Structures are given as C-alpha cells and as structure tokens.
Amino acid sequence: MGISISTAVLLLCWLANATAAKATKGQGQPIIIDTDLFGDVDDVGALTIANVLHNCGLADLRGIMINTPSQYGAPAASAICSYFGNKNVPVAALRPITNASFFDDWEYVRGEYASKIAYNWPGSLTNASLAPTPVELYRSVLASAENSSLHIISIGFLTNLADLLRSEADDVSPLTGTELLEAKVSELVVMGGRYPSGWEYNFGGTDPNSTTYVIEHWPKTVPVTFSGGELGSTVFSGQRPLEESPSDSLPVSAYQWYVGRGSVTREAWDPITVLYGILGLDNFTKLGVWPMLAYANEYGYNTITASNGSNAWVNDTSVRNQHWLKLADGVTNTSMAWLVDNFLVHPPGLSRCLV
C-alpha cells in the first residue's frame, strides 16, 4: 500500500517547483471540451481548470461544444472563458435550442446556475442561436489542427460526438467525421460509465443511443481513456473557495447557486477528467505536484451492455489503447480535492497555474 500524500506535501512540492508551471498562454496541449453545462456545476469547475491551464501555458483551448439544448449553456460557457480573459474561445450550441432552466427532480436540493452565470458575467456570446452547431465547430477546429494533436474531452452526453462520427465531407474538409478524428485526434477522454461495470448518468441518462454509437464506432486507432462515475464521486472539492475567494468570483458563485448558499462542496467528476485530458498521467509535475492519476487496467476495451447505457469492461489483451482511470498509489481523495480547489480559488489575472 502506498503512503498517503498529504495536502502539506503537495503544497511543499508545488513551492519547490512553481517555476515549472509557467509557459506561454495557449501553447500547451490542444483540447476541445464537449460539456453538458446546465444540469451540474462540476462543468463550471472543469471549464475553470481548462481556462486557467490555457492561461498558464499547459493547455490550448480550441473550442467548447455544448451537448445540452438549453439556451443558457453556450452563453454560460462563453461567460466563463471571458471571465478568464479568453473571450475568443469559440462555443457551439446544440440544436434545437430550448428555454429550459435546470430543475432538480432527482433530489430536490440543487439550484439553477447557468442562466445566472450568463446574466451576471456576460461573455462574447450572449445568444446561443448565434453560435455554430457542434458538428460545424468540430469540423472547423479539427480541419485546421495538426495531425494527431488534439485531445477531445467529453464531460457530458455523447450526442455531439455521435453526430460528428456520422458527418460527411463538406466545404470545410474533404474528410468525413470519422476520417477527421483518425487524422487529428490523439486521444478521446470521456467522463462516463462505471468501471469495471455499471450504469452512469452521462452514458445512460439522456442519450444512451449516442453512447452506444460512439463506443461502437470510435476509430480503433485513436486511444480512449474513461473517467468513471466511481472515481469523481468520492472526491469532494470546496474546502478552500468560500474562505479565500472574493464575493464576485464566478466559479464560487456558480457553485453556491447550485449546491446552496454557504457551500461549494460538490463531487469532482468533470474537473478530474479535464485534469487528465490536459496533463495525462505524467504532466502533473508541470504543476509542481506528484502524478495524481494512474490507469486501472493494462488492456481491454469498453462495451455497452444494455439499451440504458450500462457498460462493462472486456478484458482483451489485443487492445492496449483503452483505459480507465484511478487515483495513483498514495494519492487520497482529499489530495485530489485540494488540487481542484486551487483552480476554484484562482484569480483570473494570475499567470501561474496554482495559488
């Protein structure tokens, strides 16, 4: 059993290596984020991480795809990017667009936040109908990317990716969607499923047919890494933000609107996924901390086992480019939550990655 990494050790490691976390803005790992920003606030945490790492040079945020139909998702994503000084990051909106706002009919304890973000911190996109469709933006960003360069990070439903896989050649590119993915994407990172088996909301909650299509039709040459519901459900961020963030902080306000006034505690499914999608297993050291994640398997592949989106891992030694994630040996839930909190309290104008 590994020795637990305490928050104090992580902090000391960061202080010793903080200079390693500085680079040129937007020159890091190229990424596209496909998010269901609307029904859970951990998407705000995920987009906060992406913007901070974009600003300190570890990520290059090329675009954001919204996979929920509410008119508030795309403006909220634009507001987050604009808050961090990245108003030119393009955002795509799924059609048809509705005027729905979030209503918690599961536990009746969560609040609506997306429309409030869009209203209180208006970004460069204030009307979802002015945004391109996800397939349009995907094809444009992919066509202009270097070969085998992009990471697609899916933190919601797989509707947009299924549509992209079905897309045909057009004026943007002579390649089909599948061919563009084969040529331009070096890894797909998916927050979805449970491992080694089970049911999870992103896979089965709204569009299980698209989940099945993506899992069955994803190009076999492009690696896929899954961040399961069991991983983020035990990591609760929010210990520091209320004490350290100003009252007009977008991330902290969004979390309080969703979780409840005076609380920022929420599971970290999407933030963990984005951290891996940008840093992989090895580049946590660029933040000045120990590697935080590891693969839970050496081989095999994911499969959908039922029409409700349930999944199971198939052990197959011939497949070596699909994995699911776990915390690295010695890393605790508290340690990972500490790292996520660093981004939730991050001032927009700070150039270094952690605070």
TrEMBL record:
Cell inner membrane is among the record's keywords: no
GO molecular function, one term: hydrolase activity, hydrolyzing N-glycosyl compounds
All residue ranges annotated as the Inosine/uridine-preferring nucleoside hydrolase domain in the record: 31-223
InterPro entries (UniProt xref): Inosine/uridine_hydrolase_dom, Ribo_hydro-like
Signal peptide: 1-20
Keywords noted in UniProt: Signal
UniProt KW Protein transport keyword: no
Protein family: Belongs to the IUNH family.
PANTHER family for this protein: INOSINE_URIDINE-PREFERRING NUCLEOSIDE HYDROLASE DOMAIN-CONTAINING PROTEIN, PTHR43264
Name this polypeptide is given: Inosine/uridine-preferring nucleoside hydrolase domain-containing protein
Annotated organism of origin: Exophiala spinifera
